[in-house]
Amino acid sequence: MKAGVINLDKPAGETSFTMVRRLRAITGAKRVGHAGTLDPLATGVLPILFESATRLADFAHLLPKTYLADIHLGFRTNTDDAEGELEPVGNPSGLGADAVEESLVGFVGRILQAPPAFSAVKIDGQRSYKLARAGEGPAPAPREVVIESIRLLDFRPGASAVASVEVVCGSGTYLRALARDLGERLGVGGYLGRLVRSAYGGLSLADSVGIADLPDAAAVEARLLPPESVLPEMERVRLNVEQEAMVRQGRTVRVLPEPGPGPLRAHSADGRLIALGHADPLRRTFVPEKVFS
To answer: Which is the most buried residue in 20, 75, 165, 172, by most CB within 10 A?
Structure first.
């Protein structure tokens, strides 16, 4: 199996790890992973990484993610989504789109967000959801997340009001927590309904593939994207055959034109990703940090 990325459209009701297991069984690949968990109820873009591309997961997490979400107002749940038991909080009938938009603005930027109690966050070495199921343990501590933008796409008023939003955010942001916190800010309670990840960096839902369309290894390889599909913006340098051999040994090489400061990605003459690294401005060399097979 070649190294690369599948832009998978995860179906509802499946865990992200289930998708990894199924694709490992289909392809026989030695290393398979995903870049960013989607809750079982959520659908949309789930990057699946194969072979040496699994080493890019930490870089993939730096990419912005775009979500389409329905936030239901007037109720809250213990899971902050539709899986929990509904508890009425307040009547949202008096709310209009303007009030919702005004409240959403306050969530844009670097904010502190408390993860849902039913989440995989660890508390004293234990998963929060396990403590929550047992009815014990403290709530997860708030942590800083980045929300780049929130746009109100639609608002259906009434006693069962629903705000449909588009959110662009960084890694670690919980849309369930956003729904809960919006409901609290509006004084009526809120929980997350439909959630779709419509984009992950440059990977879009429109270009994704369903698991049913990947029946065998040949079908997976036919839809495989290059590993750099999940890399953030980096200057690209090209290596000749001799330089590639040196980089594969972890040695620095002089490349032309001289790259600028910041992270770099080095490619072979035929375009394959060879290594990630940085420039040494004093020696004017490319310094490899992570070399791929």
So the answer is: 165
